[in-house]
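Question:
Now give any protein.
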Amino acid sequence: MGKPTWRTALSDRIPGGRDGRRMLTVTFVDRIGSGLWGATATLYFTYAAGLSTAEIGVLLAVSGSVGIAGPPLGGLLADRVPLRPLLIIVQLVRAVASLALLTTTDLGLLLAITSVGSLGDRAASVLTKLYATRVAGPDRVRYQAISRTAMNVGWAVGGLAAAAALTGGTVTVYRWLLIGDALSFLASALFTLGCAEPPSATRIAGTSTPAPSEPTPGDTAPSDSAPAPEKTTAPTPWRDRRYLTYTASEAVLFLDDSVFKIGLPLWAVTATSAPHQLVPLLLVLNNVLVVLFQVPFARFGATPNTARTSLWPLAGAFLLGGAALAASAVGAPWFAAVTLVLAATAFTVAEMLHATISWELSVVLAPPTAQGAYLGVHGLAQAVQRSVGPLAVTAAIAAGPLGWLGLGAGLAAMCGAQRHLVRDRGDGALSVAPVTVSEH
């Protein structure tokens, strides 16, 4: 046996083989574009499109609401058509929507264009997750952890590039950053073109039985009393009360996203004595911790029962984060800074734990013949959180320290409720059998 090459070592470390590695490249390139646009979207609509603050608010709210339909629509289609070309089409739609923003400053047209782009963004997210689920098989949790690391690195690269470009401060710079965002989607589509179609239990299970041939002379005609072939229908998540309840609980647990993007910065500058320069450093801390520890945290979702058990430390992280934010409102600047760092660390740990747990449970609770539809419905949790989360965290800020204590306790309680929802049957197995695509 020859000495393993670096390509062999990389293949052993990243589940999914060549296609898994290529999809990581897609994720990385996609997030570079998102980092470029996310850092400049408000500036573009203000200075390049000439919209007022109120108009920008309406634009983002409407497009975000339309985007909620993206995950279930994408998942439903993925159970009926090949996944790879569907993902390519969605990436191209995102690219066209980004470029179309350059063609108009009319609010009505911008509403339509950003709504299409938001629909594509949310659909692409669930389709990429579904591709990873199919190609990585039983190693999907480790793959997801590696994928999240690639996402964060991509975001950081895009954000740094945008920060460097914005030193120019001209409208032309905003337009070029938007073009860069569109080019990232085009590149993602090209990389996806080089990936193979992953195995799909949906199409295996949905293969129709060949029709019986015409009887030949001498054959016995079938009896009129013979039972007709039994028709089976694919399970639907919209009638699965357990999965819908699980998705609703997920929308609550995804609140860590709004805490970091909205709650923590606003609280730090309005209710604590910590220096304002600390706020961007807290976001950098979040990014660095995810890059360093998301892959090791994959062990907390290695099996369905491990994921279920890990809901307890997740509850502890939420409690600690809420308590630290509450404590940050009292004391000297150094104490406020220390408690804010503690809160940021706790909510980052919660983010990493929940990402691992959510990935495993959302897949294992979905029937393999309807994974696309189920994961599409699960994608609604993040979409709804993006719409409702800002209201929840601003309410916590308005309530003061007790608001953060209540939010932390509420998130911890939801962890306990979710653990009960996915309880085992007394034999060590979850209430829904952990069948995956790779087992077919």
